[in-house]
Specification:
This protein is of the alpha/beta class and 88 residues long. It has four helices and four strands.
């Protein structure tokens, strides 16, 4: 099972997540294509998610992904519209 890492901030490095997942032997790929990422069972939103990261349509896609059983992992979630998705 491959983990999809959605690279939310193109101006920030992915070195940390690449090193961490690689060191654990977890197969992964990094993409800037949300649709491609959401085609996998486990998606990591990296490095942060704020109010400017996603459009309303993309937020709806992410919500449906989780409602349909997809697993989503993220840190530094500041987007208020994703509060219900992450349970806070």
């Amino acid at each position: 099972m491959q983990v999809a890492v959605y690279w939310a901030k193109a101006d920030e490095s992915t070195l940390e997540i690449e090193h961490s997942l690689g060191a654990m032997g977890i197969p992964f790929f990094i993409t800037r294509d949300l649709k491609q990422a959401l085609g996998h069972n486990l998606v990591i939103l990296y490095p942060t998610v704020d109010g400017r990261t996603f459009s309303d349509a993309e937020l709806a896609q992410i919500t449906r992904f989780v409602e349909n059983g997809g697993s989503l992992l993220a840190t530094n979630v500041f987007a208020g519209s994703l509060k219900p998705v992450f349970g806070f």
